User: Fold this.
Amino acid sequence: MRQGSSLLLSLVFLAGGAHGAQKADPLAVAREHLKAGDLDAFVDALAGSMQLPAQPAAQLYGEAARRALESGDRGLASLLCERGLKHRPREPVSLRTCLQVAVEEGRWEEADGWGDALGELFADDFEVAMMRARAARELSRWAKVTAVLEPHHNRPARTPMLALLLEEARLFREQEALREQRAELEAKLEIAVKQARQLGRLGGEEDARVARARSSVPTLYTTSWCGACRRARAWFGQEGIDFEEKDIEKDSAAQQEMTRKCQRAGLRSGGVPVIDIDGEVMVGFDEARVRELLGLR
Assistant:
């Protein structure tokens, strides 16, 4: 009788232990934490859970990311939305949150990528279009700004930012057209100069004048405290050469423009002045090099 009772108790104990060993569904636990507004506990509940159902996991992460952003925690929002997209790359709430965080933090390349993915899902969404246009604007991709905003051009309630972006895009198109016309005229002038040289109609001084007429106005990127900048500015003035000066400390757009030019030229942009003469970029002021680029004797 005692042996039978002991066996029965053992079976009950084993069954109870096996039942207690079963783990709770991490998604269900995380969902309860999310309902309670405890995002830290939400993250802990899903930590290490690799084999989660893709769609519900992505949706849950997306909702958690949205709430984190609403609470002002952009770092946590970014973490959660990216985790959601690992489960389902086109989860819309995660995509929107990742885009919004990237725009707010000025991570424009990332914002551009998130925006393209979200734009495929919501082509007519005005809020998405505005965030995409802002990213494209910061990356100087003006054709994309126009393409993204064109469907909203006749929007009844046009916001000031929409009007500004559309106007900037229009001005860019006009500038592009002028640049194309200028390039065409310069190409024609180059041909004429070569033909004139072959005929012996131009002397050395005339060549220099034509070269100066052909060149664009030099651009100087400077700061107020830079001695080399002052020397460069004085030299151009003494030579009677028109130039455009941009103070990179006062004009953030000028600083970004200078950095892009240096990167394209394979130069480090750590010093000033940076001088752009007809597309030739140099760091520092080298009078001999400047004379050469301007065609001066």
The mean pLDDT is 82. Strands lie at 219-222, 244-247, 274-277, 280-283.
